[in-house]
Amino acid sequence: MDYTHFMVMASTFLIGNAVLFSIFLFLEKRNRRYKPIRHLLAFLLLAFSLRIMKSVIYILFPEYASGLTSIGIVGMLSIGPLYWFYIRSILSKVSWDYRHFIPSLLVFLAIPWLKGETLHWIYIGSLFHMLVYYFMGGRLIYHAKFLVTKRENGKPFWVLKLMVAMTLLWIGFVLQAVVTNKLYYIGITFSEVVVFFAIALIGMKNYSKITRPVNYQENGNPQLKSLAKNAIETLKKDKLFTKSDLTLALLAKELGATNHHLSKALNNIENKSFPELLSGFRIEHSSQLLKDIAYKNLSIEAIAFESGFNSLSVFYDNFKKYNHITPAEYRRKYQVV
């Protein structure tokens, strides 16, 4: 097996993972109000997959250059609008305007007739098309002062990474239009695959942050800020979070608030749902117990229940999600003798 086939296999595997993440975004049923944002991101990832996979296939079948380039252009003409709509959706509001996808549709319908010089200039035009929408998205981010806003939810960093990935991939698309050396073309293509997989992987690890809008009005609401702060303090006080029967309703009653307002405060200020917040506190507490030599004779199951979990499977799943290792491995690694 030569390096070309190895690169194609590796690229297919990496792009396949991003496609699976896109499918997950389509099928996810929790938080239905965020469904349009998830779908926008899924379509954006699929458009990138289409464009980059075109280059991967071209390496194996250069004789189909015209058809493959046309398919790649369809993907590239979709990337710009999808990126712009996605940025709009997390900054202000979700909106679709299908007229922005007319160029992509026209190229798709004209694939059998696109060849030679005409195809080359359409490719160049699609590069500028993508660049225009990139700057439109950047303009939205700039006017929202999004990247300079101090937040604990990490969303500005996701947007910054997405912008960097867009920049690197666009540069790669430009270079592919001018290079004639096959080895250089393969190197550029694999670099695109790595960048694309990296941004998809970051998205997978920060799922709850990349599929929710930023509500600046709510984030600036002093009442919600105060309620979220009181909720955190109450949960920490006397380790209330360790009570296995604790619910949003019980915490809201303790704070003298309604379930709706408490949920809104946690989602908009802490960028976490009540179960996510509660689970985080419990995992942090169980981690401390596992490290403490005073609890070395306490079984992992007992520590789980001591931390507020009433299901061992939920405890193990959440612990591994937060710490990336099992509780037993964590105890062996971090417990001070």
Helix content: over 70%
Q: State the end-to-end distance.
A: 51 Å
CATH fold-level topology of the largest domain: Rhopdopsin 7-helix transmembrane proteins
Structural class: mainly alpha
**Number of distinct beta strands:** 0
Q: How big is the Rg?
A: 24 Å
Assess the beta-strand content as a share of residues.
under 5%
SS element count, helices = 16
What is this structure, in a nutshell?
The protein is an all-alpha fold. It has 16 helices and no strands. The mean pLDDT is 85.
Word description of this protein:
It is a single chain. It contains 16 helices and no strands. It has 337 residues and is mainly α. The chain folds into 2 domains: 208 residues, Rhopdopsin 7-helix transmembrane proteins; 119 residues, Orthogonal Bundle (Arc Repressor Mutant, subunit A). Helix 5 packs antiparallel against helix 6, helix 10 crosses helix 11 and helix 13 crosses helix 15.
